[in-house]
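Intended use. Records like the one below are meant for learning the mapping from a protein sequence to its folded structure. Do not use them to infer anything beyond what is encoded.
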Amino acid sequence: MAEDKPDQTRRYPQNLQGVLRLAVDAGSAAEGPASVEPMTEERKTWLRDALAEVCRGQMDEVEQMKRCLAVLCKEGTSEREREGEDEEDEDVRETAFETLSELCENLDNARDLMTLGGLDLCSSQFLCHAESGLRWRAAQLIASCAQNMPEVQVYLLSIGALPKLLQLTDSDPHPTVRVKALYAVSCLVREQEAGLQAFLSQDGFSMLMRGMQSDNEKLRTKSAFLLLNLLMAHPEQKDTVVSMGMGQQLVSVLRTPHSPFHEHVLGALCCLVEDCPQGLKDCRNPALGLEELLKQRSRELKGQEESQEELDFCERLRVICFRGQQSDDNGMDR
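Structure written out for the chain above:
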């Protein structure tokens, strides 16, 4: 199957809200100020049929999930039984994943999907699927279910989903898979102590560092953002991160061509030098040239309203690392 491309064909909305939104949009168009022709009978019929179909499914969302899982479970049949499948079959499975992700925005449905074995199916068969479109949709479904759901998070950790997601984030050849896998990682480790410990045992901070050094802009941004959030939520991890040489590596990232994600990198550096003597010492190392880099970046950002937060981080980092050091040096001279 070719790499993911936007679907150019019209699909029915997957839930009642989607159909109602469509109806509202159609009604708004008909009431526009210009002489817009009313909705045709053909379009009215299509909308009425779509609404009826979705309403029937809405009565039992668990049944909808079961049907989607039945489609996905075809992956478990033998190669001989699957002979003759083509891109249309792949599209059906992708649609099944999209429907499940939408349904599982409802926390009760996410719990039901876990009970039905859907999360096991995602982790065991689809995170390692040959088709990138199915890999990233499986990661997205896991993220949808895990977000703000401790029960589901613990279950996913128990079946070994996190190491697979970290591996995908680190080395999958398809950029969308890497980004969606990191999103799922974030949903498993933020505000989840067991998830954080599993993340640490898998050297997750090193994975984030490699993500920030990749050529995937979205992955760089999300890696830096997750690092910043973990350091803010778990200051006890600063020593661990500093011992890995993270301070020096973050400064190296700042020397790459300027990008909006540098704001999160500077925020992470601020975390590493506050109440962390070794982190402060590392950033003060003259060999890094951090002070001059911060001065230069501040000059470049000055007057750019959209970069104010990044500028604030620059100034904060410069004050913490070097203003006090200059006072100390002057005191020693006296």
